[in-house]
Structure formats: C-alpha cells, structure tokens
Amino acid sequence: MFKEFKTFIMRGNVLELAIGIIIGTAFNAIVNSLVEDIIMPPVGLLLGGADFTDLFITLTAGTYATLEEAQAAGAVTINYGVFINTILDFLIVSLTIFLVVRQVNRWSRQKDEEPAPPTTKECPHCHTTIPVKATRCPNCTTELEQAA
Prior knowledge:
Radius of gyration: 32 Å
Shape: elongated
Order of helices and strands: HHEHEHEE
Number of strands: 4
Helix content: 55-70%
C-alpha cells in the first residue's frame, strides 16, 4: 500500500495540483492586498466612505444601531449589507484578476508574434519558391549564392 501511495503522490498531475494550490494561495494574498490596500480606498472615497456592514433587518423585537449590537443581543438578523459588501469585493477582485490576466495575455501575444525566419526564398532566374538552404534551383538548375 505504501508503494502504491508513493506512486500516486509522485504522478505529475498530483504534483502540479499541489504546486498550483500553493501558488494560488500566495496569489490570493497578493490579490487581497491589491483590493484592500490599493483599490478599495479610492472606491470607498468615491462612495463617500460608505460601509454597508451596518445594513440589516432585525427579525426579532428591538432596534439596534449596529449589526454588532444586534448580534451581541442575540437578535436574528438578515445581513444584506454584508452581502452587498461581499458582492462588491467579488466584483472588484474579479475585475482586478481580469485586468491582470488580460495584460499578461497581451505580453505573451507580443512575445509569440515575433516573426519566424523565412524557410524559403525565390530563385532570381525562374522566380520559383525554393528552400533557403538550396545551392542550386531544382527547376532551372541555376547555381545560387549562399546567404552569409
């Protein structure tokens, strides 16, 4: 059983999955920092410092100024403000990841678009297409100059 487990663990896709999870966790910390420390302050400023966490509906008797007070009193609440904050966080994280992936794709496309060296050339005498390394045209048998 130990040998079979070792074989399972050492398979490529299991290792790739483990590496992906580790990198994903690290990337998650970067994205969270980007959202919380760089993107959310200007968004909060644009929304007038709005914090939706204190928007809730109390299903039991009593009036509470904040969600913390309601929860401390044991009131049953529908926390729609927290839900709105979670949706906003998701949308901002999604947009941020989209922009990062879009830019990385642009960079990789630019790198991939470098032209490949030509593999054919034209015979100067009969104007047929021949391989670049050809020393004699197979059609008109003219000897060709070698490119340096």
